[in-house]
């Protein structure tokens, strides 16, 4: 049985086409991995099927009475809301029922006998639904999920705008879990999550009986939870049965067959055009030439998909730094409350350091404190000599209305337009992306713009905060090789 049907979907932004006559179906029990390079339209597709965005053409049809839960990588949590408020919002439909029940009770005093009986019946139905959905133990269910995801440790009444990226993702996951939707839509859920909670999510999805659609560039995670792959490329969406490894096998064979057919057809076209050119002017052979021209005109020409620009990440190196990179002395990081004990750390030239730990423990705050971007609560940081530091932040500031070209030009005003375009193209961005506003780009494309700034500045120390989040497989591999 089909839960979701998408037919003849066409959509674009300005002159940039995202989908061209795309069709899609979701069947009961299917665990779908939605894959494709950065900017191919995966998040746009999710926004269209959840009615956040209206397509230019096409039809999106859900089965009746299907409750959809959507974990969106771009969800904005409002200031003033606590973790508890967000988790309780999973039960918004139950609170609406309670309001209806209270309104009915308020009107009972003025009702005649017939209306009263009708009201009593409606009250009984609402009461049964509230009981069935555990309305009267909501607080204990919220506490239980908060404990399971480690949210209780940070304080369930904490303002959500004070949370790290990973903590926000956990809160949204918790809300989704409490909603118990019929269908899950997950947009890069493993971004910002620590290993422990990625494993928890993997187990949850493996045991999940209903259907889900998952966007992810985490290949081991995809392989462990999906049984269908939909591949988004060149405005089309193709279905493959199996996990990501199986998709790669079939896709390679399919591409080789298409290239072989393309070469054969191009040879045939060249021979026909040559015959027409040589024989159309001669009376004796004109009919044969016309016949071959008709064949050419009717031919369904095979087109190979254009290869996307492959990212090339070459870091520009500054002069050699001094032996000491930084040293912290009794450093205590945090905001109003300390996030660490006094820290005494030393980093020397040539060392490659991994900073690991649970979400919200203070990894980003430590980096910003070392750089002097966030004031420390106690202690101090001594930076070494001749440092040229390159800092890659997790996210770009929201509400940015500049284009990619303008964003790079701000950093490098002496660059010509050719140099700016060339620098962005080397990071794997196409002309359409380069001319778009940064805010309309996908998470992966925005990460490539931030990387572009870093690559074109001479550095001898790199501080990278979650650099692979949102990046597609090809970009991750290229960054790893550097």
- Topology as a string of helices (H) and strands (E): EEEHEEHHHHHEHEHEEHHEEHEEHHHHEH
What's the total count of β strands? 14
Assign the structural class, choosing from mainly alpha, mainly beta, alpha/beta, alpha+beta, or little secondary structure. Answer: alpha/beta
Q: Cα distance, first to last residue?
A: 47 Å
Helix content: 40-55%
The largest sheet has its strands arranged as: 5-6-7-3-8-9
Characterize the structure shown:
This protein is α/β, with parallel strands linked by helices. Helix content is 41%, strand content 18%. The protein contains 16 helices and 14 strands. The chain has helices spanning 42-49, 83-88, 92-107, 113-132, 138-148, 165-179, 195-206, 219-225, 244-279, 286-298, 363-371, 404-411, 417-426, 431-434, 443-455, 473-480, and strands at residues 2-13, 16-27, 31-35, 57-62, 68-71, 183-187, 211-215, 228-233, 236-241, 324-332, 346-348, 378-383, 389-392, 461-464. A 6-stranded mixed beta sheet has the order 5-6-7-3-8-9, sandwiched between helices. A 3-stranded antiparallel beta sheet has the order 2-1-4, covered by helices on one side. The chain has a 3-stranded antiparallel beta sheet with strand order 11-10-12, with no helix packed on it. The protein is flat. The mean pLDDT is 85.
């Amino acid at each position: 049985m089909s839960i979701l049907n998408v037919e003849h979907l066409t959509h674009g932004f300005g002159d940039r086409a995202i989908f061209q006559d795309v069709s899609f179906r979701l069947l009961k029990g299917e665990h779908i991995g939605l894959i494709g390079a950065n900017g191919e339209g995966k998040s746009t597709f999710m926004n269209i099927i959840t009615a956040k965005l209206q397509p230019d053409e096409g039809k999106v049809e859900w089965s009746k009475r299907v409750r959809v839960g959507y974990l969106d990588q771009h969800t904005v949590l409002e200031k003033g809301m606590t973790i508890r408020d967000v988790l309780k919002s999973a039960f918004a439909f139950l609170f609406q029922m309670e309001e209806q029940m209270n309104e009915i009770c308020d009107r009972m005093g003025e009702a005649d006998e017939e209306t009263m009986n009708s009201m009593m019946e409606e009250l009984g139905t609402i009461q049964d639904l509230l009981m069935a959905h555990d309305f009267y133990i909501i607080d204990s269910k919220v506490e239980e999920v908060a404990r399971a995801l480690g949210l209780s440790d940070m304080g369930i009444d904490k303002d959500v705008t004070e949370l790290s990226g990973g903590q926000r993702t956990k809160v949204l996951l918790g809300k989704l879990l409490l909603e118990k939707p019929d269908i899950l839509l997950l947009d890069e859920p493993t971004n910002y999550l620590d290993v422990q909670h990625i494993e928890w999510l993997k187990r949850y999805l493996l045991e999940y009986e209903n259907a889900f659609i998952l966007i992810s560039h985490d290949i081991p995670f995809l392989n462990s939870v999906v049984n269908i792959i939909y591949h988004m490329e060149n405005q089309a969406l193709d279905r493959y049965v199996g996990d990501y490894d199986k998709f790669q096998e079939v896709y390679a064979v399919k591409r080789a067959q298409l290239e072989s057919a393309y070469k054969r057809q191009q040879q045939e076209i060249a021979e026909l055009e040559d015959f027409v050119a040589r024989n159309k002017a001669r009376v004796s052979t004109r009919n044969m030439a016309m016949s071959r021209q008709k064949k050419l005109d009717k031919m369904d020409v095979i087109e190979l998909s254009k290869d996307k620009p492959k990212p090339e990440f070459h870091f520009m190196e500054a002069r050699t730094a001094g032996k000491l990179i930084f040293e912290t002395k009794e450093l205590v990081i945090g905001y109003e409350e300390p996030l660490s004990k006094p820290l005494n750390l030393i980093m020397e030239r040539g060392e490659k350091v991994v900073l690991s730990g649970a979400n919200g423990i203070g990894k980003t705050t430590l980096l910003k404190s070392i750089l002097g971007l966030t004031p420390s609560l106690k202690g101090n940081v001594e930076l070494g000599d001749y440092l040229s530091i390159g800092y890659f932040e997790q996210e770009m500031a929201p509400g940015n209305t500049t284009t990619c070209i303008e964003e790079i030009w701000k950093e490098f005003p002496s660059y010509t337009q050719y140099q700016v375009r060339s620098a962005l193209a080397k990071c794997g961005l196409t002309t359409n992306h380069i001319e778009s506003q940064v805010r309309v780009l996908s998470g992966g494309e925005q990460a490539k713009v931030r990387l572009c700034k870093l690559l074109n500045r001479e550095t001898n120390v790199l501080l990278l905060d979650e650099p692979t989040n949102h990046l597609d497989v090809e970009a991750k591999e290229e960054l790893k090789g550097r």
